[in-house]
Amino acid sequence: MMPYALREALAAFRRTPVLTGLSAAMIGLSLFVVGLFGVAAHNISRVLDRVESRVEVVAYLEDAAPLQAVRAAQSEISGLPEVLEVFYISRQQALELAKRELSEFRDIFGDLSVNPLPASLEIRLRPGYRSPESVQAVADRIDRYPFVEDVRFGREWLDKVFLLRRVAGAATAVLGGAFASVAVLIIGAAVRMAIFARKEEIAIMRLVGATDGFVRRPFLMEGFLTGVFGAALALPFIYIIYRVLSDAVFQLEWLPDMWVLAGAATGGLLGVFASGIAVRRHLREI
């Protein structure tokens, strides 16, 4: 048998289909905007992940650095928990790389009588250890080797990458919270209208001994379903905008499945939260 709360919530939808539709549409509009911002935030995060994955520490070695000592250091550095892999680049390999990557200077490199490029160790870091503090700590440890002449990792642009990530996270939290608040107000207003439409029924229920919980449950279920319906309305429109932008402007990545499920769950929880506030206020007034 269908639970009482669900049966009453569905009955309320049938009694006021226009009001229910408007509530779901307004919630869908709020979640639509939140979803679009979610697509933007996800793609910004993916770009930053790709930039962050290129973070590496380069240790330039002295010309007289003993190869055996360098190999021993390479093995030690590889054992650090922050380090993913270490590559030794000899002076000759550095010159060949420069010729290949800087083709406009190929003639200059070809005319050199002495190779001016130093040998180096290139250290790539594991995910989770690419913050400026972690990279600086690894660089400081490598700089202690006596044959290391200089250590570089692009501190300035790494700081900018993490600053941009923090700004994107803060903007997501602020805008997401703002639109969630709008959704709560809309759901709360819709539920209060439903309560006023049934206030005599609620008064009779309380006269015959119905508890606040018994009265409250159908409205909570109604708010939950309205929030889920709103999320279901928003999702196809978000996907359409995503496809249009991907096909016409630039390639985007769709939201992860967990984000989509979290959005639907958030719509339902916002509905329960807003309904709970509206019902509690009304029951106090009776």
Question: Structural class, please?
Answer: alpha+beta
Can you count the helices? 10
Shape: elongated
Stretches where pLDDT is under 50 for at least 5 consecutive residues are none
Biggest sheet record: 4 strands, antiparallel
Biggest sheet, spatial arrangement of strands: 2-3-1-4
Can you walk through the features of this model?
The chain has 286 residues and is an alpha+beta fold. Helices cover 73% and strands 8% of the residues. A four-stranded antiparallel β-sheet has the order 2-3-1-4. The longest helix is centred in the middle third of the chain and has 43 residues, at 155-197. The model has no long low-confidence stretch (mean pLDDT 81).
Summarize the structure.
The chain has 286 residues and is an alpha+beta fold.
Sum up the structure in keywords.
single chain; 286 residues; alpha+beta; 10 helices
Please outline the helices and strands.
Blueprint (H helix, E strand, L loop, with lengths): L3 H12 L1 H37 L2 E6 L5 H12 L4 E7 L1 H11 L4 H6 L8 E6 L6 H12 L4 E5 L2 H43 L1 H9 L4 H37 L8 H29 L1
Antiparallel strand pairs: 1-3, 1-4, 2-3
